[in-house]
Amino acid sequence: MVELKTAAEIERMRVTGQFVGRTLAELRELAVVGVNLLDLEQHVRARIRERGAVSCYWDYSPSFGRGPFRNTVCLSVNDAVLHGLPFDYRLRDGDLLSMDLAVSIDGWVADAAVSVVVGTADPEDTRLVTATEDALAAAIEVAQPGGRLGDISAAIAAVARRNGYPVNTEFGGHGLGRTMHEDPHVANDGRPGRGMRLFSGLTIAIEPWFARTTDRIVVDPDGWTIRSADGSRTAHSEHTIAITDTGPEILTLAA
Question: Where is the Peptidase M24 domain positioned along the sequence (predicted)?
Fold first, then answer.
């Protein structure tokens, strides 16, 4: 069931979103050559504790994972793109790191992700990251009241194809608000003018992710970390947005 949010509820989600945005901005600065992924995890734990927030990942046990997830941030390196478990690994020059964070504050959730290249960037990695960011911007632009869910999905896929990247539709965006995953599912490919109508008050996480040369994925033995099936590099960008009478509003910008 899709739950539309009131203006007051969206304001409460904005508070959470700003915390998520600020924390991801901090992680961008901390993600340098030599930093251990476990140090990034500990930084997020400390921020959550200081704010009195609740991690949406800790003890998360969905049907597709090998739960419970016992971390507060997803850290996915190189060919890993989603649900990466933080582990004892020091970032190396040229690594491509995707960081995904979802928390709840006072019962309201926000979710966002960023990808960064650590140290010296391969131009193809930069292009891949930029494509996910461009796809996110394009999808947000068409998330207008009166539009259709397929408009968002089609906008993402159009950017992917323009850049020569295949699109996987197994994992994508989602509704959220009181919990991390609510209806509707927001696929990363679709047809414009099709699907659920977009109403003011709808809050969704839009999250394009691409691999360089495949649309197929594999899952690590840990039951969580999702990788490109051919080992090609991956990237992931995400924002939580609210659809309002005047258009889309990004809730996960760093304040």
Answer: 11-245
